[in-house]
Amino acid sequence: MSDDIPFDRTFELAPGRAEEVVPGVRRLLANNPSPFTYKGTVSYIIGRGRVAIVDPGPDDAAHVAALLDAVRGETVTHIFVTHTHRDHSPAVPRVKAATGATVLAEGPHRAARPLNVGEAPRLEASNDTDFRPDRALADGEVVTGAGWTIEAVTTPGHTANHMAFAFKEANLLFSGDHVMAWSTPVVAPPDGSMSDYMASLDKLARRSEPIYLPGHGGAVRNAPRFVRHYIEHRKGREASILHRLGKGAADIPTLVRAIYIGLDPRLVPAAGRSVLAHLEDLAARGVVATDGPPSIEGVYRLSE
Ligand SMILES: [Zn+2]
């Protein structure tokens, strides 16, 4: 299903060793590989001397030590956080304590919508609900440091508080988990929202940065074109759901089996949440119907 996106999975970076990825930006890999994190979370260091960090990463002592080692002799003035999943933000308290840097993000973790009756926040274990920024950033807000300018770009969808950061001098975007070269991200209700996610993709498609530096894997090249592939991919998945519902009502496990061929079994539950995200969006648009609010147990049909 994902063959339509020109993924680039080349990514050769040993955990714990900082390297310059583009002039003025170093990156450092955390040793937390998984089907959701690829080789692990990538933390970034912007500038030299007086620097900013993007996504300190998981609460992993070795990663925090490597990050602080990479900026030894320098001053960390700012910490930017793309979103509050446990592989991105929990290292913030340790890095802040060691550096005194100001923490900037869209806001604390929150769900994209209220929970339905009886609905458990299934992915709660992946959320960093303790996170609080020192300064909440609004869309378009600009933050300047020593030799760098960052523009905040709200990109809800993967999480409600997801924020990308445009590095103006380098003409690139730190895209977090919103757009990545190796895979599409999980968009899973109630934390994620497909309607928001698609709107955030449309927003990035109107921007001009040619390079994205994501939270996992290598750089996204030719980014505006890549974003358009992402949009087409999601529309293709939506079409697959509608095609299957055209044959009759179906529940989510049936839709997952029909749509995701050869899926890694570890990703089946996430795929179910992703299908639910599409169904929520389709129900909100009046294309698909179900009894009660869209839920993971629901049975779905095309609207009359
Ligand atoms: Zn995430």
Structural summary, described in words:
With 304 residues, this protein is an alpha/beta fold. It contains 6 helices and 15 strands. Strands 1-2-3-4-5-6-7 form a 7-stranded mixed β-sheet, with helices on one face. A 5-stranded mixed β-sheet has the order 8-9-10-11-12, with no helix packed on it. Strands 13-15-14 form a 3-stranded antiparallel β-sheet. A hairpin with an 8-residue loop joins strand 14 and strand 15 (299-302). The chain starts with 18 loop residues before the first strand and ends with a strand. The model has no long low-confidence stretch (mean pLDDT 93). Zinc ion is lined by residues 83, 85, 158, 177.
User: Which structural class best describes the helix and strand composition?
Assistant: alpha/beta
Oligomer: single chain
- How big a fraction of the residues is strand? 15-25%
Topology pattern, helix = H, strand = E: EEEEHEHEEEEEEHEHEHHEE
Distance between the termini: 28 Å
**What is the alpha-carbon Rg in Å?**
19 Å
Tally of contiguous helical segments: 6
Mean pLDDT comes to 93
Major β-sheet annotation:
7 strands, mixed
Hetero compounds: zinc ion
Query: How helical, in percent, are the residues?
Result: 25-40%
List the uncertain runs: none
The backbone outline, from C-alpha atoms, is elongated
- Strand count: 15
Strand order, largest beta sheet:
1-2-3-4-5-6-7
